[in-house]
Amino acid sequence: VLSLVHGQPILYPVVFASPELEAALAVRELPTTYIIDAQGMILRHFIGYQASSVLEKALEALTAKRSEFP
Question: How far apart are CA 43 and CA 3, in angstroms?
Answer without folding.
Answer: 27
